[in-house]
Amino acid sequence: MVLERIRVSSNGEFIDSYDRVVQLRGVNFDPAIKYPSSPEHTSHSPLVEAYWDSADNASFVNHPVKLDDIEEHVNKIKSLGYNTIRFCINWEAIEHKGPGQYDYEYIEYVRQALVKIYELGDIYVYLDPHQDVWSRFTGGSGAPLWTLYCAGFNPKRFPYTHAAVLHNEYIDKVSSKQTKQYPKMFWPTNYYKLACQTMFTLYFAGDLYAPKCIINNKNIQDYLQDSFNNAIKTLYGYLLEKSPELFEGNLILGLETMNEPSEGYIGCHNLHHIPKERDLKMGPTPSAFQCFMLGEGHETTVDVYDITVAGSKKVGTTTLNPRGHSAWMTETERKEIDAKYGWERGDEWKPGCVWRLHKVWDVEDGKPKLLDARYFIGNGSSMSYFINKMFITYFKKFRAMFRSIDTDRFLFMQNPVFQRPPELKGSDLMDNRTVFATHFYDGMSLMFKTWNRAYNVDTLGIVRGKYMNPVFSLVLGEHNIRKSIAKQLRLIRDEAREVLGSNTAVIFSEIGMPFDMDDKIAYKTGEYSSQTSAMDALGFALESNNLSFSLWCYCSRNCHKWGDQWNNEDFSLWSADDAARRKVTVEVPHLGSDSITLQESAGFTSLSGSTMSNKSSEAFKKTGELITIDYSGFRALDSILRPSAIRISGSFISAKFDPYNSTYNLEIQGYASRENITLIFLPAYHFRLDDIVMKSSSGHFFYDPDRQILQWMHEGGNQFLSISTIAAATNEDNCTIM
Fold first, then answer.
1. Spatial distance between the Cα atoms of 232 and 677, rounded to a whole number of angstroms
2. By three-state DSSP, how is residue 51 classified?
3. Residue 198: left (phi > 0), alpha (psi -120 to 50), or beta?
4. Which helix (H) or strand (E) holds 678?
5. Residue 348 a catalytic site member
6. Angle CA(575)–CA(30)–CA(201) in degrees, nearest 5?
């Protein structure tokens, strides 16, 4: 089935071949790619020798799901009216055996999975090379283990030296049970620990800051970037060669750059101190220099922080004692590793800390001493310096790789989360096939795993340093909180068009809410009121701005105990545990290829009793022609299953859905001199045809029950459409049901 080609308009909107505005709505599928399928080592697997020793021979085949299960899960996603999947892959899955050794079994699995998705029809895919805090061996996901060896690390000693903190460390090796509490959202703190910060600094700026790190006649920056790019190119090129129908049929929208890149140490003003702009400080929080010392086995006393509504608060100190362990390989260890992977290092690259090698610090008279506290400083603010210098250099290289094999599909550019995009307006790096991909998470809901209806904060404003004190960012009342989130999303979109070009399309490739709110009480009671309100706030923010998005996430392996099977995150819209607890279905009339013509009267279309067309009335009476949609397992279904204008003939003005009262309002500006047909996903879960009233400024309607799509044929100019249940319409002021 050939899907309609999606383009970008001159004002930055996704459009179809009829110039109708398209909203890409979907999910990330699926976090299971963050860990291997065989041997299956999740983040809550015990940290035994096999965790490290099996890395070369790990397999990611059948992650996210087995091929036989693709249809089941993708159809569940489509049942929500979603038309897009951000399909997660990762570097480790492709190249875990070693540099240049690609896992073609996994690559073939990805091809077959995409073919099955294509055969199901009506859904687009873009590919996401996913990573979090560099690698699962540094507390996240993404890069292969050999990249850490490449930098000179011995990851097995990270737990001793606090170079990274893994969830696995909290799991008993004998019982496989979690023996101590892993703090909520603790994994992102690894972005500020030795392993992750070093890897990102080397990846983006090794040539500048680590010139002695030469491997196989390349600086480590080029070696790592080229390895990553070649791995992604190998997978993407294989798809182009083996399954051209995926591209000719427009299933694949394009490819995203590295997920959530980090600046590492780049731009750090003083290695002695924790940067004031670092908002996430939790638990033991060493400065960069303290990380260096711990990495080479020196006992160090560091500050301890806790997260409060007013921001991070210092609550004490603790002494970390690596007991002489080093996070770096010895000379003997390095020789063995280099022989295994065929590496030859430059003569100047001696074993040990690469930052000590480059005289950032040293040991004098047995004591560590910082020699250059401003070694990583650049021009301007740290983040701006990184984004407009190192990130652009990386983006050019990634873009050249992608365009060498695909000149037609979208390149989704993602820079650091919540940060201003690179100043590329007017640059030859920007064109109508470059999309700005960004992420948004509400800080309070994310860190505290609760939906606070009384107060929240302006997350974007805090990250950007808008407030002298986070207290000034407080937003009071749920109504204002919803408006604040909508405003933050709008500001991110408008800023992207300001600095990248007014014709830049924007997609929130990650946005979501945790479902394990309030200490998982909903898993005991089955009452998801907090989650429903939280997801409705996101839905309101997205639809009021007509923003394209991919929710984080749909996890096929989600369970109440371990969430998404990774670092205790629990964002999945669907859970097998919820499916087993309660069955939720809705019946929709099945009419084959026919549509229902909806009657009108004085601007109203009423579908109750005698005013329903004969055809639709018969469809509801004949139960044999009803199809059942199974929504079992979806959490906060009232909020995540939403009506939406999926094709707007004209331009968007406003939209609002109220899941509590089942009302939907849409306002658009129709084209002045052409036929206008706007398509709206209208889920029967909220709006049964025998129980709705529609009011519009003009036009007539057809409804496709199989796809739950309403066709609105309307005039040009300002147009509105209001849809509600009969009960809701009856309660409206000055409203008469015809």
1. 39
2. helix
3. alpha
4. strand 676-681
5. no
6. 130
399-427 pLDDT tens trace: 999 999 999 999 999 999 999 999 999 99
CA of 145: how far to CAs of 45, 56, 544, 561, in Å?
17, 8, 43, 28
Q: How much of the chain exceeds pLDDT 70, in percent?
A: 93
Question: At a CB cut-off of 8 Å and minimum separation 6, what does 565 contact?
Answer: 31, 32, 34, 35, 42, 43, 44, 555, 557, 558, 559
For the entire predicted model, the pTM comes to 0.94
Residue among 263, 510, 543, 569 flagged as catalytic: 510
d(CA 297, CA 320): 10
Nearest to 423 by CA among 509, 506, 498: 498
Q: Which two tokens stand for residue 136?
A: 């699962």
CA distance 586 to 89: 33
As given in the structure block, the two tokens for residue 735 are 């409203």
Let me know how long the chain is: 738
Residue 83 CA to residue 249 CA, distance in Å, equals 15
Which residues face 304 on adjacent strands? Answer: 284, 316
Q: What is the pLDDT of residues 11-56, one digit of tens each?
A: 999 999 999 999 999 999 999 999 999 999 999 999 999 899 899 9
DSSP string covering 547-594, please?
A: -EEEES---TT-BTTTBTTSTT----SB-HHHHHH---EEEEE--TT-
Query: 578 CB contacts (<8 Å, ≥6 apart)?
Result: 632, 633, 634, 635
